[in-house]
Each structure stands twice: as structure tokens, then as C-alpha cells.
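Appendix B. One record, verbatim.
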Amino acid sequence: MNGGRNTFAGLTFEQAVRQYADTVTGVCVMRLQNRADAEDCFQNTFTKLWLKSPEFESEEHLKAWLIRVAIHECASYMRKNRRVTPAEIHREESEPFDFDRSDMSWALFQTPPKYRDVLYLYYCEQYKVREIAIILQKKENTVKSLLKRGREVLKSIYGGEGSE
């Protein structure tokens, strides 16, 4: 357990949870589109922080680690549950989100999953392309391409140029 360490980049565990709860929740909700599943992955992410107790160079390093772990937790959760029930049935049974159509979250929910992480990290978490590439462990050019295509999808969702 926690290896005797009580801090993570200078924050206590409780401070880290408070400071990064919204970020981890946002990542989980964007990926899973279901509150209950997002809460499970949120818990798993912070449990891993407590149990693994890694060393962090800074709070930004801690935040990036939490985002990466949350993404992996969500991917793992989706893989495990894909065999049990189709996503459509699962989504229908879940508690729906009620977003205003002008809300960025609503638009992100409409985008294909392959663009959602990049768009969320860029627009909601304000990361630069280079930082997103590090967090997602992708090449910068891949992130740029996903961002460009994701923006085109967002434009079509909002009825901008190029939409049908």
C-alpha cells in the first residue's frame, strides 16, 4: 500500500483527488458516456495512484499520468464489457446526460470515439498538441491529424461549412 509515501507531486492523496477529480471525471465521461461506468473508472484510476504511488516531477506530470491511467481504465472497461452486452443496450439502460446543444460536451459526445480524447484534451483541458501526444502516447502528427478531422466533425455537428 502506498509504499509509505504520503504525497504526490507535493499533494496529499486527498488534495490530488480534489484537484484532479474534474479532469479524471471528464476523461471517463467522454470515453464511456455513462455516469455509473465513469464512476467505476474514476475510482480505479485513483486507486492505482494510491497503490502504485509513482514518483512525479510536477503537478503537470501527475495530471498527465492520471489522464493516461483513466484512458486505459476506460479502454479496459469497454473491452471487458463488450463481451457481456452491446454498447447500444448498455447506453439505453444508463442514466442519460442532459447537455445543452451549445455545450462543448454535447458536441464531443456526438464525435466518433477516435477523435474524442484529442478534442477533449485540446479544448477542455487546454493541452498543446505536443502534450497530448505524450499523454496519449501517439506521434504529434497523428494528434494533429486527429485534431484536424475532429474539428471537421465538430463543424458538421454545429452546421458549419462542409456540413451536409
